[in-house]
Amino acid sequence: MSQFTPEPTDNASVATIRTLAADVVGKANSGHPGAPMGMAPVSHVLFTRFFNANPKNSKWFNRDRFVLSNGHACALQYILLHLLGYKLSMDDLKAFRQLDSLTPGHPEAHHTDGIEVTTGPLGQGFANGVGLAMAQAHLGAVYNRPKFDLINNYTYVFTGDGCLMEGVASEAASLAGHLQLGNLIVIYDDNHISIDGDTAVAFTENVEQRFLSYGWQVLHVDDGDHDLPGIYDAIVAARAEKNKPTIICLKTTIGYGSKQQGTHGVHGSPLKPDDIQALKSKFGFPPDQKFYVPKETYDTYQAAALRGARLESQWTSLLAEYGKAYPKEHAELTRRISGKLPEGWEQTLPVYKPADPAQASRKLSELVLTAITPALPDLMGGSADLTGSNLTKVKGTVDFQPPSTGLGNYAGTYIRYGVREHGMGAIANGLSAYGGIVPFVATFLNFVSYAAGAVRLSALSKHQVIWVATHDSIGLGEDGPTHQPIETAIHLRAIPNLDFWRPADGNETSAAYFVALKSTETPSVFSLSRQNLPNLEGSSIERAARGGYVLYEVDNEDMTIVSSGSEVPIALEAASKLKAEGINVRLVSLPCWSVFDKQDEQYRLSVLRSGAPILSLEALTTVGWQKYSHEQYGLPAWGASGPYQKVYEKFGITGTNIAAVSKKVIAFYKQRGGQVVSPLVKAL
Predict the structure, then answer these.
(1) Is the separation of the CB atoms in 349 and 531 below 8 Å?
(2) What is the DSSP-derived secondary structure letter of residue 218?
(3) Which segments within 31-154 are labelled E, that is strand?
(4) Fewest CB within a 10 Å sphere: which of 238, 493, 587, 652?
(5) To the nearest whole percent, how much of the chain has pLDDT over 90?
(6) ∠ CA 519-525-527, rounded to 5°
(7) Are 519 and 464 in contact (CB under 8 A)?
(8) Is 189 in contact with 38 (CB distance < 8 Å)?
(9) What pLDDT is recorded for position 637?
């Protein structure tokens, strides 16, 4: 017997969503009306009966999280946000997909009130939802106490056929099943349509069997177009299952009510005007009135919003009582919710002297994590099955695992991602989006390429995700060109709002962590060596934190070498050899281009100054170094397999050869004559 209680306004509310979707996309003459029209019934049931959020405070911490993984259907999300009373007006709906509007072509976090994560690239939102659910499970395990169930929200994800075809969703779903995330509810819009037409042409797998094999609960609603009680009961059953994530397979008709319903013609194209009029007539709405919303629909959604406001008020009172009973935990939780790090955590960063032993920067990263983790409970991270190589697990930390496995618990902070780089990156975006957590993830630098879609969305969405990317050059040696990243660094350096760090020693590694942890709206990638690197005279956290600095200064230089990471000591060796011959060479370390670029012009021109040629040196592609140097030395193509010293020799990246190259550069510019102007001096 269904527990669903029908309301007189249900049919009108569902029809409102469908007709608004047609109007919103129609006015823009661009967008995707089909999925919003098909998912109107489930949206109405979810947001009026279950979803706990306060539109007047979209950042209430214990709100339910909603992710529209099929982000092309964003007209649906905007309509719901408007009806519920978020900061999205009818005029905003009318400005759908227009320049500088609050209703862009796909949902964007930090842009539109009520949007949790940026979606559109298919599958990403699904994985974000897994991260959001993991965050709730973790923070609930850490801070909840008897009678104080403070953090207990659900994460709801709408997804479509396209998302389920993407590998990133499979990676995330597999891990979610292992982690037994009972707080995660995915609603699959099973409409059998993608851009190419019926999914029969490419997607015929048994979705139920697939998700059962992942360890999910699978539920079905066969008539998603009309069966509100069936939808309601499925969500009730999903919420009741505490030890498995749930996917509800909801059969819908794309573009329901349109003359083109059930076809790919309504997937990504506006309805024709006569079709929109016929649609409205079918649902008893004025056919000539655009953007029509009956008062009873607004009233229904206002009631849902008021319920959310009451829930937040009750939660705020509970939090205050929690503060009396558990003052220490309350102080830490509220600090984490605010996004502030503990006072003085920077004092725990390791500082090095030149006499300290040479170590790989991946080891230096481990030493930073070991030092700062006790002071930063906010850190939560792991590796894609490379823990022993990435060196990311701090001794004494507990794995984030279902307690029933005996492998850890949900209060644990170390995540075993398995060989799932793309899923890992997208899940980390969800962890960051939840709040109160600073996620770090790890793999070889070369395999960050597998996760490029998630990294790009980190940057676009302002997610503070830290990538520990080891084995970062031909210095990894014997594994050869399949594992040696040549082009990866310039790809990542080219992504806006992403800091790519390639530290040369211990102080620079500490500086990378310092800046990354201070940069609350910027993701970071740490490019770290397998081979040992000496600690350098002249390096410091303060200097490296500017992204670039003069490591070795001379007056009246014949040349400057600018380098990063493991090649800085090689450049220093070359400078030493040249000094013995009476040739003066300055050395600049440039661990992070994007941070250096933010420094004032006077500082930048003092580091890469005019007066002598500048040669860049890096054991990667030379692309991009033209911005900072007159001449570039690096790898012309792929690397090679062998002991790393031999590989460096093969490509001429040795102190002896770089000294010889430097002489050629100096001779060329002296013969050419004229003033040598810094490459930073530009008209634009």
Answers:
(1) no
(2) E
(3) 65-68
(4) 652
(5) 100
(6) 135
(7) yes
(8) yes
(9) 96
Predicted confidence (pLDDT) at residue 188 exceeds the cutoff of 90: yes
pLDDT, tens digit, for every residue of 479-503?
A: 999 999 999 999 999 999 999 999 9
Q: Which residues face 186 on adjacent strands?
A: 157, 247
pLDDT average, residue stretch 449-470: 98
pTM of the entire predicted model: 0.98
Residue carrying the six token digits 């029933």: 404
Q: Could you tell me where the DSSP H helices lie in 346-411? A: 361-372, 387-390
Mean pLDDT of the chain: 98
What integer pLDDT is reported at residue 2 of this predicted model? 83
- Of the candidates 54, 51, 22, 62, the residue with the CA atom closest to the CA atom of residue 38: 22
What pLDDT, on the 0 to 100 scale, is given for residue 1?
A: 77
Secondary structure (DSSP) of 114-147: T--S---STTHHHHHHHHHHHHHHHHHHHH-BTT
Residues taking part in catalysis: 421
Residue 632's H or E segment, with its range, is strand 631-633
The answer, yes or no, to whether residue 194 has pLDDT greater than 90, is: yes
DSSP letter at 259? T
Structure tokens at 410: 């949900």
Check: CB of residue 634 under 8 Å from CB of residue 616: yes
Tallying the residues shown for the chain, one arrives at: 684
**In whole angstroms, what is the distance from residue 218 CA to residue 190 CA?**
13
Q: Residue 396 CB: number of other CB atoms within 10 A?
A: 8
Residue 641 has pLDDT above 90, yes or no: yes
Q: Where are the alpha helices (DSSP H) in 582-654?
A: 593-597, 601-607, 644-650
Q: b/e per residue, 102-123, with b = 16+ CB within 10 A?
A: bbbbbbbbeebebbbbbbbbbb
Q: Which of 166, 167, 169, 189 is nearest to 127 (CA)?
A: 169
Contact criterion met (CB below 8 Å) for 662 and 613: no
Nearest to 500 by CA among 454, 437, 564, 439: 564
In angstroms, the CA 80 to CA 74 distance is 10
Please, what is the angle between helix 207-214 and helix 167-179, to 10°? Answer: 40
User: By the 8 A CB rule, do 391 and 361 touch?
Assistant: no
